Amino acid sequence: MVASREVPVEVMSPERPPLDRPGCGLLLTMVAAAWAVELFDFFLPGDLDSWGIRPRQLSGLPGVLLSPWLHGGWGHLIANTLTFLGLGFVVLLAEGRRFINTTLILVVVSGLGTWLIGRNAIHIGASGLIYGYFGYIMGRAIWERRPAWIVIGMVVGVIYGGMIWGILPTRSFVSWEAHLAGLVAGVWLGRAHAAEGP
Questions:
Q1: In degrees rounded to 5, what are phi and psi of residue 40?
Q2: Which among 23, 54, 83, 195 is placed 20 to 30 Å from 119, CA to CA?
Q3: What does each C-alpha distance from 25 to 13, 19, 86, 150, 191 come to in angstroms?
């Protein structure tokens, strides 16, 4: 008779990368959401754009969270998509796990700013968030003063510096108020995070 012995076997689960930062899939998901909303708005009856920010009206407050996903046509959406991916990617790499909170803060603060100072119109589009990203990067570069941030700030300034003119009321159909509110929100948050350190 042969006695059997149980031999302990350790089963190792495959290594997974640490979930210390969201991936580019998050950015693409956010873009896909905006495109899906525009498709629904294009093909279905109704007007989703009416859910944008209506300044100083209680009924317009939901637009603070909804307006980044609403756009006034395909040209508007395409232009915002390209800039959003570029600046969003920089903020994503820099912020890691804090990216979602940073984005939410910028959406809320820029949206409330637009709600407070905006003209009597419906303000839609991701421009407030995009200007928030731009201001955030500039704020970190100015106040953190680490070489990496200075280089990032210089590169972003060269590529996207022309955006600064968007805070001026030069075109009636452009929400310069959202641009200004987003820029101020981004600079404020960038400076706050620079004071906290990496």
A1: -60, -45
A2: 83
A3: 24, 13, 14, 27, 27
Residues 140 and 190 sit within 8 Å (Cβ to Cβ):
yes
Rama region for 187: left / alpha / beta (φ>0; ψ in -120 to 50; rest): alpha
pLDDT in tens, 101-119: 999 999 999 999 999 999 9
Alpha helices in the chain (DSSP H): 24-43, 63-66, 74-95, 99-117, 127-144, 147-160, 176-196
Rounded distance between C-alpha atoms, residue 142 and residue 95, angstroms: 16
Q: Is 2 part of a structural domain of the chain?
A: no
Residue 39 is encoded by which pair of tokens?
Answer: 């498709």
Q: DSSP states of 137-166 as a string? A: HHHHHHHH--HHHHHHHHHHHHHHGGGGGG
Whether residue 12 is contained in a domain is answered as no
In a domain, 96, yes or no: yes
**pTM of the model as a whole:** 0.87
Judge contact between 68 and 129, C-beta under 8 A.
yes
Dihedral angle of Cα 69, 116, 169, 88, to the nearest 10 degrees: -40
**Per residue in 41-56, pLDDT tens?**
999 888 899 999 999 9
CATH of residue 95: 1.20.1540.10
Are residues 115 and 60 in contact, defined by beta-carbon separation less than 8 angstroms?
yes
